[in-house]
Amino acid sequence: MSCSLGWLWTLAAGLLSAHVLQKLCFPYFWTDVLFLWKVVRCGANLELSKLKSSVRTVLDRFVEQARRVPDKPFVVYEGTVHTYRDVERRSDRLAGVFLHRVRLKKGECVALLMNNEPDFLCVWFGLAKVGCSVAFLNTNIKSKSLLHCFHCCGAKTLIVGSDLVDSLDGILPSLLEDNIQVWAMRSHSEHTMVHTLLDKLEAASDQPVPAVLRATNCIKTPNLYIFTSGTTGLPKAAVITHLQSLKAAAGFWAFGATEDDVIYIPLPLYHSAASLIGIGGTIELGATCVLKKKFSASQFWPDCRKHKVTIFQYIGELCRYLCNQPKTELDKDHKVKMGVGNGLRQDVWREFLSRFGNIRMCEVYGSTEGNLCFLNHMGKIGTVGRSNFLYRLLFKYDLVKFDMVKDEPVKDENGFCQRVKRGETGLLLSKVCATSPFFGYAGSKQLTEKKLMRDVFVKGDAYFNTGDLMAEDHEGFICFKDRVGDTFRWKGENVATTEVTEILGLVDFIQEVNVYGVEIPGHEGRAGMAALIVRPDLSFDGEKLFEHAVRDLPAYARPLFIRLQEVMEMTSTFKHQKYQLVQSGFNPSTLSDRLYVLDYQQKSYVPLTDQIYQSIIRGERKL
């Protein structure tokens, strides 16, 4: 008996010691294992679907949910509830119109230009039901960029929201010249060449079109095109396959969400965060989403209380706006338990939690077209993800040394990249392989190739270049540090500097342009700034430049600051030198060059005085 008790005591002591050792040396072990188990389950299901003759898509999942919970609210929009059955029937009617009246065929690409509203989803699903791929157009882009989007994705049909028809006035003749048919979500149209959908919809049947039209036997078939600035040039159509859509739709589930959650989506549906993660995730769970046409800081918490929101989607800028709202006694009176998004600064993160309560903020890192994703399932402040030995077995990525001055990776004597040490900042590269494919962009293969780095560590390998500088600490937490190259982020949008450069270069008095982003205290991302050389025989005209920027660039891409220079510095590879310009900022008291600032009241770029500069730094001037 005493021997048995001794054995039990020894076993108990051993287990206790192992538990203490695990807590001290591997404090995140079980949390990591449980989360990675979900990731592995999701990946295994996707791998199995490749072996089946028919792929179960996100749309198929929506049809299943509409049959399982037909009367459950799917979308709440401006006080109106749209059930799963409502959206299913309306998308069926639209599918019938697309098939029989618009005469769309399986495999065609259709462009969609709509603001956030339930009909965005109904049109999207209706097009998918007839087997069409859909190109989501950014509602902010202007004429030249908009025309370019059609050319690169091959769309010959445009569906436009009723409130955006007038925005086509300048390019409608060009669209018609290119044989692009335009259909508006209206019953009547003042434009003779713009067809209407709502009048056809009223007479349409809500009987489903044949399911064979939407069926696919390949999980890597493209089903969406989502436009991104990439790193250079005009917007690019990132190819989104069923594989990527299904991975994104599992995001909320991976973080522990259930069908009982109510998800608040204030982000634009033309971006992958709201459409793939937000709507796709809602469908996967069979949950309810509250869709906003546009984010409003003053309406955010009242909406959350009214609709009993439990999860919200964010970008860092959104959280900063909420922190800047006047404090009230109701700040912690809500049911929100989780936020899912990206770009949240540490200081804003801490202030947000202190003010609004213990909300689990789950950062998601990954570009629309990228083949790598980090998920901060731990909710640790200031990190975008978590890695460990098991994660590295599943996802092949590396951080390599990067020369900020030369704007290129550091190579060894054999021409290969060099990995950084743990804790050091490096350029994030993700290996392209069978388990992490890169589908690239529609159209030119050259655009896809530019995002790849080859012969990185050995001859013949290929890596996706994220363009982001990251660091991984000794506990495996990953932190975002900066962006490199020709892209920066402002107002939640990626700004391709070469696109802005090309458009500004059309102004007659500008000889040369170098566009880059500068940090402004208290703001997320970087504000646009352009260094200009004025033609010798002409002079700087702030009003003309303002008119040109407002007409041809979306608000987030317009340079806030102008710096006039005599000579442009170049890198050794004859690229514009940006690093020194970025570092020198926009302080008029420390720069000898003439500086100007965008002024919407005066409708001009006006001299940037020290007084204006101080008002920007103090956060008094609206940007």
Q: What's the oligomerization state?
A: single chain
Query: For the CA atoms, what is the radius of gyration?
Result: 26 Å
User: What is the level-2 CATH architecture name of the largest domain?
Assistant: 3-Layer(aba) Sandwich
Biggest pleated sheet: 8 strands, mixed
Number of domains in the coordinates? 4
Signal peptide: 1-18
Membrane topology: Multi-pass membrane protein
Main location: membrane
Domain AMP-binding enzyme C-terminal: 499-575
Outline of the structure:
This protein has 623 residues and is α/β, with parallel strands linked by helices.
Written description of the protein model:
This protein has 623 residues and is α/β, with parallel strands linked by helices. The chain folds into four domains: 56-71 and 83-241, Rossmann fold (3-Layer(aba) Sandwich); 250-369, Rossmann fold, CATH 3.40.50.980; 381-483, Luciferase, domain 3 (Roll), CATH 2.30.38.10; 487-617, ANL, C-terminal domain (GMP Synthetase, Chain A, domain 3, 2-Layer Sandwich), CATH 3.30.300.30. It has 20 helices and 30 strands. The strands form six sheets. Strands 2-1-11-10-12-13-14-15 form an eight-stranded mixed beta sheet. Strands 7-6-5-3-4-8-9 form a seven-stranded mixed beta sheet, with helices on both faces. A hairpin with an 8-residue loop joins strand 14 (360-365) and strand 15. The N and C termini lie far apart (79 Å).
